[in-house]
Write a structure and sequence with these properties.
With 307 residues, the chain is an alpha/beta fold. The protein has 10 helices and 14 strands.
Length: 307
């Protein structure tokens, strides 16, 4: 007789999440027929049909919806129980999956990662890059760093650091133009536009005293990757609105100029996002605090409010 295992429960949760037996099999590195066979065995044991199959889509039956709720609760409680036990261990261990915007990863890849893996050799760290805003339906990580919070009550969005975004250009480019006196005049110049996850494409911000102004910008050069935008700016292709922490090294080497002497810089939070659970992931907290205290991603916010 088939007995329900934790792996069966996880498989039901995964299939419901990805919407396909085939995608669930690929995600678990399993033969596709074995996933179908396991679900059939589970349905036979329960005496109900969990998934309605068709050639075009897969959906939960009404019985499947009810069973899924129990499966999600069981998996969450199992994770919480194991997390609580791991947190009592004398030395942090286990797996930590972190996803961050590409510009974050390049900034922290050296000093923070090096320090982290040396201090906590029993933690298996996976760091992946993303160029998208956080999405609750695709959140397969323990932790995400992003410029946009996640508006979902099942997640916590915690302020990681405060960083400025400001206007930058190369000395060579500025030598060819008449220096603008305000951000409004930037629209008449060549621009390198970086599309941010937290802003509508083609919009930059600038702070005038206590007021945040929006600047609609257009360019023949639009990029969704900060490193590419930075390189094009360094090569003299125009003015770009970039985070300060990306530009500090190039400022010191006089390869970039901060325009308007930083008068119109716009401060904003960077976010650490993670699932809301009763027991905090110790490995995740260690990584967050190390990223904060390094100051590499902006001004540390040590007592940040969480939402």
């Amino acid at each position: 007789m088939h007995q329900i295992s934790l792996d069966d429960i996880r498989l039901v949760n995964l299939i419901a999440k990805v919407g396909s037996f085939a995608r669930a099999a690929d995600a678990n590195d399993l033969p596709r027929p074995s996933v179908t066979r396991r679900i059939k065995q589970l349905e036979s044991y329960l005496g109900v049909t969990l998934f309605q199959r068709s050639t075009r889509q897969l959906s939960l039956t009404s019985e499947g919806e009810v069973f899924l709720q129990h499966c999600q609760t069981i998996e969450m409680e199992w994770q919480q129980a194991t997390e609580r036990m791991k947190s009592t261990s004398s030395e942090p261990c286990g797996k930590l999956r972190v996803s961050a915007l590409g510009l974050f990863n390049r900034t922290i890849a050296g000093p923070i990662l090096s320090q982290f893996v040396r201090l906590y050799p029993k933690i298996d760290l996976e760091l992946t890059s993303t160029w998208s805003a956080p999405d609750a339906s695709k959140f397969d990580f323990d932790l995400m760093f992003n410029t946009k919070p996640l508006d979902d009550k099942s997640f916590i969005s915690e302020v990681l650091t405060i960083t400025n975004r400001d206007f930058y250009a190369s000395p060579d480019y500025l030598a060819k133009i008449k220096s603008p006196e305000s951000p409004i005049e930037l629209r008449e110049l060549e621009l390198v536009i970086l599309n941010y996850t937290d802003l509508e494409n083609g919009h930059w911000l600038w702070q005038d005293n206590d007021t945040i102004q929006s600047l609609t910008v257009q360019s023949h050069l639009k990029l969704d990757e900060a490193e590419a935008a930075l390189q094009m700016t360094l090569l003299g292709h125009g003015i770009c609105w970039l985070p300060d922490f990306v530009c500090e090294e190039h400022l010191k080497e006089q390869k970039l100029v901060r325009m308007f002497d930083g008068k119109y810089a716009t401060p904003g939070p960077l976010w650490a996002i993670y699932p809301r659970t009763p027991y905090e992931n110790q490995r995740m907290r260690l990584f967050i605090e190390m990223a904060k205290s390094s100051g590499l991603l902006g001004k540390p916010v040590m007592d940040a409010a969480r939402s």
